[in-house]
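// run 5 | inverse folding | seed 20
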């Protein structure tokens, strides 16, 4: 691919979660941190040593500055972020345990980012020296003018020969499948690298494994290969990266992935991990960042999918949204060093 500057585009959110595994209804103490799908990807890539800018819109007041400072702390460039509006989007998360699932409640209506206007974003200057552009389906799902803004960004990136990646990231609490389908179908022609899970692909695009159901397909090779082939035939993607997650409980997941080459029409599978989770949120973003890093770095496909899945595996063990695993730690796990022994 290329090794120039990476641009990510999406909302920065203020995250609140109760202490430990308390329910929202029990909470007296709250932990505040910052997050957002594209922000999570940006932090991972900066942590891996790439030059990355997050394009977003935040308020000019202190809370907006706190969000900017949080990203800068981890090496993400924020000079192309826009200031304006009155509020930062918020989400609340209750961590699940055992058979009780995690729960997310959004409070992001009328945020600065949700009120973005096309004139807020000068893509000519934003894409200066850029080689990669990443967004997720969450960004247009926020609504307002953002579907139009996303389309303008994709067109501008394509005109400049910039590689475009998209994580489908369907969120039912933001829009329904019909709205998502109508918008994402307009964006897909500009995407080179497509990232998703099979359930979202089936719900949004109506593409499912030809030989089995989704749950069975997660644990075999025929299903992901079938879905990826159909995606390439429909949209012409260069690469398709699928996460393969089987939830045993809120605490334990079976985790793997596949990277599919659209030119050779062949898929490469990672090893699978049994993950004891500390914080599930951001795991998919860590996978996406791992895919982007592996392609920019020119890793062979087996090494690349192993890296992406190991990156995500480590993120599940880290509190809050950002993946703070280093390249060396990810490569060590991908090479089989997963016993968790103390390093000293």
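// decoded
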């Amino acid at each position: 691919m290329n090794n120039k500057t990476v641009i990510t585009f999406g909302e920065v959110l203020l995250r609140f979660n109760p202490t430990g595994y308390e329910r929202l209804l029990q909470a007296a103490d709250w932990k505040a941190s910052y997050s957002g799908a594209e922000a999570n990807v940006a932090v991972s890539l900066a942590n891996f040593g790439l030059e990355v800018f997050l394009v977003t819109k935040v308020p000019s007041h202190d809370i907006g500055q706190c969000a900017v400072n949080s990203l800068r702390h981890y090496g993400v460039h924020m000079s192309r972020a826009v200031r304006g509006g009155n509020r930062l989007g918020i989400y609340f998360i209750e961590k699940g345990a055992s058979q009780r699932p995690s729960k997310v409640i959004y409070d992001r209506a009328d945020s600065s980012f949700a009120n973005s206007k096309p004139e807020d974003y000068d893509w000519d200057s934003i894409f200066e020296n850029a080689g990669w552009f990443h967004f997720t389906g969450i960004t247009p799902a926020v609504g307002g003018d953002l579907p139009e803004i996303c389309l303008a960004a994709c067109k501008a990136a394509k005109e400049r020969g910039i590689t475009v990646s998209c994580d489908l990231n369907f969120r039912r609490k933001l829009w329904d499948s019909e709205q998502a389908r109508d918008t994402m179908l307009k964006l897909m022609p500009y995407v080179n690298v497509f990232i998703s899970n099979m359930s979202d692909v089936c719900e949004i695009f109506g593409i499912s494994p030809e030989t089995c159901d989704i749950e069975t397909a997660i644990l075999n090779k025929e299903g992901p290969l079938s879905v990826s082939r159909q995606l390439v035939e429909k949209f012409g993607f260069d690469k398709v990266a699928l996460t393969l997650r089987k939830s045993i409980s809120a605490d334990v997941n079976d985790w793997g992935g596949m990277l599919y080459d659209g030119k050779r029409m062949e898929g490469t599978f990672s090893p699978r991990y049994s993950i004891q989770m500390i914080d599930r949120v951001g795991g998919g973003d860590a996978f996406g960042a791992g895919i982007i890093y592996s392609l920019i770095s020119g890793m062979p496909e087996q090494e690349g999918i192993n890296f992406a899945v190991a990156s995500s595996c480590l993120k599940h063990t880290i509190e809050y949204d950002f993946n703070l695993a280093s390249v060396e730690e990810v490569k060590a796990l991908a090479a089989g060093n997963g016993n968790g022994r103390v390093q000293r």
